[in-house]
Amino acid sequence: MPAPAPKALVFDVFGTCVDWRGSIIAEGRTLSTRWGLSIDWTGFADAWRGRYQPALQEVRSGRRPWTILDVLHRESLDALAPAFGLDKLDEAERDHLNRIWHRLNPWPDTVAGLTRLKRRFVIGPLSNGNFALLTNMAKHAGLPWDVNLSCELYRAYKPDPATYLGAAALLGLRPAETMMVAAHYSDLQAARGCGLSTAYVRRPREFGDTPKPDLPTDPQVDLVVDDFEDLASRLGC
Length: 237
What we know:
Layout: E1 8-11, H1 20-35, H2 41-50, H3 52-60, H4 69-84, H5 91-98, H6 110-118, E2 122-125, H7 131-141, H8 161-170, E3 178-182, H9 185-193, E4 197-201, E5 223-225, H10 228-234
Parallel strand pairs: 1-2, 1-3, 3-4, 4-5
């Protein structure tokens, strides 16, 4: 299939642009030393992320009103704290730990690849992360976004069509002129259903040494690439 010719690229962030799992484990071990705690940070990172989709679904379903991701993350942290020995943390320490999602580190190819893509396309995150989270993350990780298309702008979480269509509309583009870039096939299928073009990025280490299969044998996407540098080359950057 020939490569599409989008005018803007919008990116999933957690797992696609940044290594959420490795970042939480690495910083958590540093915090253990500072706080004098012995924590299973690998288990905690996986458990924390495991509560992500269920928390979002409570909002998507209408069972609770619009709630930003920072609040959902904190609720999940508080629920998990006793099982992982984190209930010893005071309020300031818990707040600092919760904001670890603002300080996630990029994959090695992310910044260089985005910098190349930015020369030709408008680029920005289309993420369930709230506006402040994505802003602080970009500052921390050096992500060279042109715009911040946080789903907070639409008061809806992916895969609600309002997020994909809203991103294109805010950029003054038709959906077909906008490419969704993600390491998660379900995200891309939702975007494709809204008329966006799609690029799947392989992130085999998102979940550590036991990657979860995500891409079918015959994927319905426009591009499949190994990383952002590969994406830039495929799109002529």
